[in-house]
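Quick one:
INPUT:
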């Protein structure tokens, strides 16, 4: 997929598939009229943004132009349409890992699916670190999965360069903007759990038969939500699947056994002392990933079953791919965002 036209009339907006940036951003599924393919459009109302926010967004777009990696979500076109910033990217038909966890795999995913997703994320992080940046917003909603099982990292807004005065800094203490705002709104117990428990060295672990006492596993589960099986997370409705299998009504969702390699991997990543935490490139070589035998495109759609990607939208107009390609050739957009004028 190359660059797309920087013109809002080239896109037919379909349904809303996400929100972000403190609700200033709407993510739309859309059809790109010249070729008929589906894209995601992040639309941000610039009039509601402060100047500081706009600078922040510009920095993100600048960084996106530098990055070219198969595990990082590419931006295909960036332009302004009626006071809105439009960022066009490929549509990732499985949505985000957060979408998958909250709507289908509420008790956690299959270990092999997790391995594929984590390997994709580590490859993205390794690349970002080699480029001299730190992502600072690695979370399930920034892990996007395409119809053919390609895992991509998004969320470049919080990224920061490690290069200071020509030198690569070893640490960054700067807190990402527009995430600090949520802190005063959190309840004391949530803040305590987030900050104090972390500082005190309490680390989460994988929930399975090796970490939950047998007597608890025979009890009726008191909660059913777990963010990918690590610690606790919000529970939402929908079908419950654990380890890729529907959990039968009687059995505890954590009556599963993750491999010793997976437990060791999680333990390594969650060490309190940052010096002891391995780098992304070291983690890519961890024995946890030896279970990966096939390409993500061959394995992930099987592992996600019965979840199916969003496909098969009926378009209202017939598509003319040939004429679409011709118009693309004449009007390829360039991500020229350096000379905005507000
Ligand atoms: P936050 O403010 O929480 O950091 P954000 O502003 O970074 O969020 P995104 O995470 O980029 O917003 O997008 C919000 C959601 O929209 C994603 O979690 C995902 O569900 C959906 N989404 C975004 N981009 C795509 C895409 N290319 N394909 C499919 N879904 C997408």
């Amino acid at each position: 997929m190359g660059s797309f036209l920087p013109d809002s009339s080239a896109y037919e907006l379909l349904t809303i598939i996400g929100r972000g940036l403190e609700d200033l951003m709407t993510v739309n599924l859309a059809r790109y009229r010249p070729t008929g393919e589906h894209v995601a459009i992040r639309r941000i109302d610039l009039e509601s943004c402060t100047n500081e926010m706009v600078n922040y967004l510009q920095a993100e777009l600048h960084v996106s132009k530098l990055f070219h990696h198969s595990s990082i979500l590419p931006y295909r076109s960036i332009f302004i349409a009626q006071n809105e910033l439009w960022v066009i990217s490929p549509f990732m038909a499985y949505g985000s890992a957060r979408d998958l966890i909250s709507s289908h795999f509420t008790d956690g995913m299959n270990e092999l699916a997790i391995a594929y997703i984590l390997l994709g994320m580590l490859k993205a992080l390794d690349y970002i670190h080699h480029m001299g940046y730190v992502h600072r917003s690695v979370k399930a909603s920034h892990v996007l999965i395409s119809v053919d099982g390609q895992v991509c990292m998004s969320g470049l807004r919080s990224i920061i360069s490690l290069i200071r005065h020509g030198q690569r800094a070893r640490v960054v203490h700067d807190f990402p903007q527009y995430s600090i705002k949520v802190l005063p709104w959190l309840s004391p117990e949530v803040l305590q759990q987030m900050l104090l428990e972390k500082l005190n060295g309490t680390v989460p672990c994988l929930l399975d038969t090796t970490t939950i006492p047998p007597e608890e596993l025979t009890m009726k589960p008191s909660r059913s939500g777990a963010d990918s099986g690590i610690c606790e997370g919000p529970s939402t409705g929908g079908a419950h699947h654990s380890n890729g299998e529907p959990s039968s009504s009687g059995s505890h969702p954590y009556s599963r056994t993750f491999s010793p390699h997976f437990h060791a991997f999680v333990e390594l990543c969650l060490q309190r002392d940052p010096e002891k935490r391995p780098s992304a490139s070291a983690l890519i070589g961890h024995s946890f990933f030896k279970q990966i035998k096939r390409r993500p495109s061959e394995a992930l759609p099987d592992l996600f079953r019965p979840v199916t990607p969003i496909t098969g939208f009926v378009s209202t107009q017939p598509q003319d791919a040939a004429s679409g390609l011709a118009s693309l050739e004449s009007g390829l957009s360039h991500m020229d965002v350096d000379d905005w004028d507000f």
